[in-house]
Amino acid sequence: LVAPEYFDKLAPCLEAVCDEIDQWPAPVPGQTLNLPVVGVVLQVHIPSRADKPESSSLKQCGQESLLPAPLVLTSVHELDLFRCLQPVLTHLQTLWELMLLGEPLVVLAPSPAVSSEMVLALTSCLQPLRFCCDYRPYFTIHDSEFKEFTTRTQAPPNVVLGVTNPFFIKTLQHWPHILRVGEPKMSGGLPKQVKLKKPSRLKTLDTKPGLYTEYTAHLRRDKALLKRLLKGLQKKRPAGVLTALLRRHLLELTQSFIIPLEHYMASLMPLQKSITPWKTPPQIRPFHQDDFLCSLEHAGPQLTCILKGDWLGLYRRFFKSPHFDGWYRQRRKEMARKLEALHLETICEANVETWMQGKSEVEVVDLVLKLREKLVRGSHPAQPGPG
Fold first, then answer.
1. CA-based, 20 to 30 A from 297: which of 49, 79, 136, 355?
2. Is the separation of the CB atoms in 15 and 30 below 8 Å?
3. Percent of the residues in the chain that have a pLDDT greater than 90, as a whole number
4. Any idea where the UDENN domain is (predicted)?
5. 121: CATH
6. Comparing 93 with 198, which gets the higher pLDDT?
């Protein structure tokens, strides 16, 4: 939107755009905002925790008045997930696990466009789990972290790198996972799938497409998914339908993995009846990995996912990943906020006068100061983030 106007009107255009953006309202989860810019109004729905990840943004807007729009995107950057992942569909399970575990991965592609789309497609595979690692859709030798990422004196960082320069095959040869892909092609059937190869098969020159890794997936791949996608291709189903099918599969897979963690985490919350008005609320119990793993026998992902395999092994590796750390910190922060709110609620319902009877002046003043501090803290809650 902005670039064509800029080349036509130069600096004054940027000033006008900045002025318009400066007038935009603050984003509020659950609301739909009208954002004017260069003569166009962008209608943006800010997601909230109540929104379902797979639902259309139109449905989530509910009764809000929608502007007539020539184009509706579910996100700012709408990926054709099926087209992006076509050459690696047979290894989708392995790649999903590598993303889940935050493993260092290099994507070597023939062009910046293919590199960027593949990296963005892979990092979006974990939705609704937030991707907590670094990723570079298009990385070059001129980037400031070039030395840091290519050094062999330390383990590769938890980054997904998209590159096009074959020079990286040599400089990043020590990275544990390298995905070499060609140009994506849409045809009547699935394109030739990249093969799983040992890293030792990497050649500096003329490296063939493939996933070069020693990693073995913990879960078996879903052959039924491949059959459905192939059938859709043969029947010439729209790409959007195949992308929706693929995204739903990944969403359900991630949810099946996360739901047991959510249930266990919820069990660590103190009972509401243990929260009393005049005492510090009880602490959230610590997360014990062994206890969680024991709970999987009767409340594990097998209840919602048909995939067989070593779920326990996958969880054990997940505990060491940046994604577990990111998920746990966020959930604990939310639970602490909830605990604080419940404590405030209990205080509001309590009879202060009854408590004051027989208490010394020092105790009463101390209580008043604590209540004031708690009320001030409660009146300025952290802005809840999107789901």
1. 49
2. no
3. 38
4. 1-334
5. 3.40.50
6. 93
